[in-house]
Amino acid sequence: MDPQPIIGCSMADFRAGFGQDPRLLEPGMDGMLLFVHDSLPDPPVSPAAPLSLAAAAWVPDGVDRIGRLPDAVLRNVVSRLPAKDAARTAALASRWTGLWRSAPLALADCHLLPDGGEGGPPLRALGRDSPGVADAVSRVLAAHPGPFRCVHLTRCTMDAHRGDIERWLQHLAAKGVQELVFVNRPWPLDLRLPASLFSCASLTRLHIGVWRLPDTRALKRAAGFPHLRELGLYMVVMEDRDLAFLLDRSPVLETLAIFGSQIKVRLRLISRTLRCVQLCFSFLADISVVDAPALERLLLWVTWGGGSEGNERSRVKIGHAPKLRVVGYLQPATHGLEIGSTIIKAGIKSSPSTTVPTVQIMGLEVQFEVRNEVKMLPSFLKCFPNIEKLHVKYQKADETTGKVNLKFWQEAGPIECVQWRLKELVFHEFQGSKSEVAFLKFIAERAQVLEKMVIVVAYRCFSLGFDAKAKLKPLIGATWANADCKLMVLKSPLTQGGGPVYNIQVASDFSHADPFGIIYYHELL
Hints:
alpha/beta, 19-stranded mixed β-sheet, elongated
């Protein structure tokens, strides 16, 4: 049985299933929405952008040099202003009157609030409407002939404006919107995304949140996004066919992020353009990389198995991906790994058909108190012989089922990436168990080219009288394969633990070589 979604169920079903006032869930829902808002891309314009007012006011000869600039330059200036400020430029002089209507406009509904949205989305108001904003959005979309280079609509309870949002999307489709962030406020929970969204063929970036996708079987054959390069789906309820439709009708898509899916995700990747795929905070049944020649990053963050209780293993299958460079966070407890047509099991011997030689950065999340899970680690690592940077995150187990010692690692046989390729190891949320220390000691004694080992000690350990030096004595006293390797031991600031530190926007930004390398720790021990 599939896990039952909260976003996407009707109010009647919700009351029948939960037997309580749905408002009791508002604090938790607001927390999830805050998480969604934090993950969304920021508008490209801001009402708080710094201006050199003193310099602008000081004109020694009184000549208006800005007004002498060509119209094309002035339109470029106006297009970089929030919509409200862009419209106000018409009052500067007769020369400016029509400029804002001929400039590509950036509209963010939060900028239409009295404070310009600078206070951020208040937690207590995330599920509530922002008075007057919908009317202001309607006026701007009707008055401006387009194009709209960017539109962010995140501050309206869409159920209260169903007629408006249909017109909004029709305006945006007709006026060439390029980037759209479209997020519903969640009450009621069963609101369908208008099918007219699929008429916005000019889109290059699309992020939608807290909707149920329309039934794609009813859409016209021509519906699709021929120019779409970036797609984000946040707390969206969708059938497998709907997700497959989106991918099939986005022929130049480069980045895909799925956040907060409450039904099992089955993702089959056949794309010549996809470079980065992220699946975050979601139930995962199956992700299969069939043919993705451009794929560089396959990122999984806080995913659960596909069963109704989250206890079934998910399948992660890697087929044709000749540019794949970053993979993680893989969880041996949850993810069943397949390379090509081979299921990776403990003790399997590596061969060219069971390796992905292009991967250089990997993230693993491991329950070190579960013996059968730790026994999978050598097999996982042998599948990626050229790992240069490895992130390992300690994951708390519900039940301890046996530990492993150094002898286990010594008997695991040679692991090519550890011996000859690994340059940096970062161990996150270290708890000090013997299993963890045995793993770290094995790495230290075998990694010939290891340059740096970073151990981030979990915050909770220090309330238990944790002695880092005593816990790490076997590691410090080991005979390191590279005597010049630098060991750093730091204190984690994360008081609540939880999943690995992660940022959706950073993970899809290729200027950041390591999407797992967010420095959240500072204090040396």
